[in-house]
């Protein structure tokens, strides 16, 4: 259990549930930043991990520890319980823990991060769909990452009180690492949903015009399959496999990249994209999930339809040809983060939700 005070100290004001902050993936990054940037101390948060990376046994142990940790914290009567949830097992764990919290008299916050939550609902049976709707509508507040996700949740669960709060990202200082011309950076799970195969195909379309172009891939997943596809397309020598990029390495990789690309088929609000924008990088992304809430095509990035390798190649080629446009988009991207997604702004929005639920202003449920 991670917490801001010892068990013997005063009761936490907020019990927060989610994946282990030291783990991998977007939710772990979000939680780690909230802790690092002062939300836990500011709001008296006791954080209980309910999930961890590793084997099935590791995950079962984490779930069991999360349950006992939640029960122990509920006995100390927190005012609010805030759960970071996605789809499938993540939803099941958090929905049951939130039900326990409501039974203990706590206000609850359901914070949705899942990129495929709509598909999860569509594939669920009638009983699970009812439970999902009940969980959303019984929560005091549901936090969506974007206006599109908020609209979907309100349509599915009309009785839910949905607010939009994006993921936060810190603004990194200027880096001394030189930009490598032609280096395209991808960060994320290496799988079809992230558009990685279209990105490799786009690189193949660009290889003759841009002999210096290369694709650096940071992440885990279908690495061997991507290597084979790159070899088939004649660009195996243009692929750099970085493996999992840890936090301390990520800023160096972002600084080195000329372009950041994430042509996903489904997303929440991807942390890797926000971090690239904060680093002043021109981004080429697909207009899915919460991405259009952050990126305006031609203003602070370029947006393409998912699954279209030729359109992706055209967008990347435009930036590889025009350093001035690439730098302009990167500067606008950083300004967007500073104005709307910087950590202090987002933490203020979360604190306002907590204050409202504690009856310190506005309407609470």
Automatic annotation (TrEMBL):
Name of the top EC class for this enzyme: transferase
Gene3D superfamilies with a match to the protein in the record: Glycogen Phosphorylase B
InterPro entries associated with the record: Glyco_trans_1 (IPR001296), Glyco_trans_4-like_N (IPR028098)
EC number: 2.4.-.-
Domain Glycosyltransferase subfamily 4-like N-terminal per the UniProt entry, residue ranges: 22-170
Keywords, in A-Z order: Glycosyltransferase, Transferase
Source superkingdom: Bacteria
Limits of the Glycosyl transferase family domain: 180-335
A Gene Ontology molecular function term of the record: glycosyltransferase activity
Protein family membership: Belongs to the glycosyltransferase group 1 family. Glycosyltransferase 4 subfamily.
Protein name (database record): Glycosyltransferase family 4 protein
Lineage: Bacteria, Pseudomonadati, Pseudomonadota, Betaproteobacteria, Burkholderiales
